[in-house]
Specification:
The protein is α/β, with parallel strands linked by helices. The protein has 11 helices and 11 strands. The protein has an 11-stranded mixed beta sheet, with helices on both faces. The radius of gyration is 19 Å and the shape is globular. The two termini are 26 Å apart.
Length: 313
């Protein structure tokens, strides 16, 4: 049984988008998966009643407060213990749910992860991974994509280790090929951070490190996990989103390129904390919420956080 907690009040279009996302995903979930809807009970109950949704896999947990997108994340999380996000983390920390998904304030999601769950012992800094679709049907997992703007070389090695576990346990990629995102293939390329990271990655026996990978080669299918600092990763991710937006404006229709629609992947996992957390896009539509829930089910079913914890013991 997988118990999926959902921050029903998180996101630019919540709670309507989250409610519609729940309604749209029920038929796709496993029969033993439960959805714990954390938010204003009256709003949730009224929607379920209007839609005629009666499913014994749905559980409503009332939360009287909301953390809004423009709030200071640290202050909001501390001052709103009855917010949907804070209550979700309380449920996750007490192991009443197996995963928490939120499309809300990303800063508050990370504050909550560090405050309520804390980093796994041995992890310097948690990170966020994004699995990019490749033309060959595989994935190239990029991390970090936004949390750690400034990094030390040792952190990039840990990102690679986290990405390798994620690739294996969730995507079934054994002996993931690890690349370091850089401006050239030579080991001398890049800033001192990347030069030292290359040296450390090369000497880490547990990793299948193949060397530097240039952005233009990212989609060639020669790498399964690509490592970079959060500043670089976030720019890469948003450039991909922007290019997809341009293709849509130009009315370019292609089955593969449609996979770059953020709605298709729904959310990305926070790696390195004592619990499974999925971070969705702030502008998530109902479809994106549905896919965020499916991503949560996949991560929780794999028991990803426990595998990471075991690896770093």
């Amino acid at each position: 049984m997988v118990k999926i907690g959902i921050d029903m009040m998180g996101g630019d279009y919540a709670p309507l988008a989250t409610l519609e996302g729940v309604a749209g995903v029920l038929q796709q979930l496993g029969p033993d998966s439960q959805l714990w809807l954390i938010g204003d009970q009256t709003t949730i109950d009224e929607f379920l009643s209007r839609q005629g949704l009666k499913d014994d896999r749905l559980f409503v947990v009332h939360a009287s407060e909301v953390i809004h997108m423009d709030e200071n994340p640290i202050r909001a999380f501390q001052q709103k213990p009855d917010s949907s996000l804070a209550k979700g983390y309380a449920l996750l920390a007490s192991q009443k749910i197996d995963v928490l998904a939120s499309a809300g304030h990303s800063g508050a999601v990370m504050v909550g992860a560090m405050h309520a769950l804390k980093a796994i012992e041995g992890i310097v800094r948690p990170c966020v991974a994004s699995a990019f679709p490749l033309p060959n049907g595989r994935k190239n997992i990029l991390l970090d994509v936004g949390i750690n703007v400034e990094c030390k070389p040792e952190m990039l090695v840990q990102f690679a280790q986290l990405g390798e576990i994620y690739a294996r346990e969730v995507w079934g990629i054994n002996k993931a090929r690890v690349g370091l995102l850089n401006t050239g293939s030579e080991k001398s390329k890049g800033s001192p951070l990347y030069q030292k990271a290359h040296e450390l990655l090369r000497s880490e026996a547990s990793l299948n490190f193949i060397g530097n990978i240039e952005p233009r080669d990212f989609f060639d299918g020669n790498v399964d996990v690509t490592v970079c600092d959060g500043f670089t990763g976030n720019i890469f991710l948003k450039q991909a989103e922007g290019f997809y937006k341009l293709l849509q404006q130009r009315k370019v229709n292609d089955d593969y390129l449609s996979l770059f629609n953020y709605e298709q992947y729904g959310g990305t996992p926070v790696l390195g904390v004592n619990g499974n957390v999925i971070l969705g896009h702030g502008v998530s539509s109902a479809l994106a919420i549905s896919n965020m829930i499916l991503a949560s089910e996949k991560v929780a079913s794999a028991n990803l956080a426990q595998h990471i914890k075991k690896a770093f013991q």
